[in-house]
Predict the structure.
Amino acid sequence: MGFTDNRFPNVEPETFIQRPLQERLKVLTAQWAEWGFGAAKNISVLYLAKVFGAWLIGGLLLVTLSSQLNPLEPGSWWMNPIVYQKLLVMTMLLDAIGVAGSWGPLAGKFGPLTGGILFWARPGTIKMRPYKWVPFTGGNRRTVFDVFLYFGFLFAMGIALLSPGQTAATLPALDRFTGFLADPANGVPAWLSANAASFQLIQTTPLVFAVVLLLLIGLRDKTIFLAARAEQYLLPIVFFIVFPGFFEVTDMIIALKLFLVTVWVGAGFSKLNRHFSLVIPPMLSNTPFWPPRWLKKSMYKDFDGADLRPSRPAHLIAHVLGTIVEIGAPLVMLFVVGSSFGGQLTVTLATLLMVGFCLFIISTFPLAVPLEWNMLFAICAVIFFIGYPNSAGFSVFDMSQPWLPFAVIAIPLFFVIFGSIRPDKVSFLASLRQYGGNWASALWAIHPDAEQKLRRVYRPTTDQIEQLQTMGLPYPLAETFLQMTIGWRSLHSQGRGLFSVLLDRVPDINHRRVREAEFGCNAMLGFNFGEGHLHNEDLIAAIQEQAQFEPGEFIIAWVESEALWRGHQNYKIIDAALGVVETGRWQVKDAVSEQPWLPNGPIPLTVTWRSPEFEQLRFTATDIVGPDATVLGVDTAALNQFVAESEVLVEVRER
């Protein structure tokens, strides 16, 4: 794989895409296991430049200059509270715009590289309300009011980011805090006491408006709410508002420590399942720089013998270097105080271990590319646990009120517990299951002659297959490259179940175009971070309202996350024209024990309900290429005309 060249599967694309699905999956999974997605290395360099150049260097310049701090004197400001406050606000703002997190080719955005604001600032695009029972939130199309709320949120966050900070002269809590730091009797480190007089806090008035607007947005459209990573950033922003105004700045520092630990421990808890070991091999396989090929292959039981289940080293990495470290190290960071258990040295080593944990994730370039988030957490870990030592009055036992620690962890802990028990009710992001492998997910199976109906959906971009063709790839090669994503999916536990559903229930599946629903969702909503709830039957209904598929043309296999240690996952078959036509479940142990391409056939499925309309499905696909393969190149003028007609034909309305 060259620096500027993608590595495509070593097949003849024209014949490969017409081979049976299971044969394709065997090739695609082996290709992923050895080479990952195959994106050229310059793509990874682009991400590194974006994170370390634009976000880190550019962000620090913005944060310091807007706070009247000298960026060339980091020793004077690296512990200033306003620096990490503004870094967090900046990251949330960038996520909400769509240029951080789920961005670029590794998130299914080949052109344009950004979804986000291109969708959310445009009335008529699809929105996804989370609760149908909430009044005044109806309709699945974005209105002018929704755009107003969105821009209001961005504006409020921007004002908070660019405004000078509050000083001790105007904020009593900050005055008490700087006085505490400057008193030699309190024994705080010199890097705190020496610069305490210059410490500032972010302006909270625009943050109050931002929080209110984001909550209103979230009731009308969960897409933007999740894209802004509210589960990671909203509660700390509330801390920025509440603690300096009603408690102490020291309480805010400790609360942020508690929140970091809760996120890490919650994420570690979510990995205590059968799914997580299957995440490590394809994750390492996608790492473009440091692991040699032999190490990537060693993550699989027998790569040369075509056994692509996780190896013992993969299990070791998953549940020792992964789960145990992610739970144990943060607890050490939080509870080791004074000289016990090695004191601050132990806390520092545990902190550096978690920094390495974050940098490791960055190095693998996961498909959702949450790179800025990992950088922010790595920086905050150093600031909070090394810069503000537990032994200097910043331990969890030093909060001004004994009930405050419990109040801080109550909300995230509730979502972790309730979301693990009822994953159908809580986003996997809010329940902190980002890397656990236990995800709601889906696959799309589209009749090749009907896929172009998706062009009727009003949005500012096209499907990935057309984006790749616009970049110059002929259709067969674009199709082959895009199918790498379904190879990735089949390397995970839920992929084996989803493909079992398609193979068992869709008799013409070998002749359909099978799409990874996460990428498809990106093309419809401008965002997806692995959240299957964004592309369930509600999104399909919104697509159908405009695309008007016939029964059987667009079939979706969709699965919910496994409820806490229940041992099975519940699936749905959704037809765009008919809605949900079947529900059932499969056993997780059956999925994880099979090969990704299901050489023994579909895993056992238990049907719990089937719609009488199921028999209306028509299975007529005969050629994955389709009769119009020679005219599949993107005609920009025709596409623009089609979108213009869609704006007229599909009324923007509230339901």
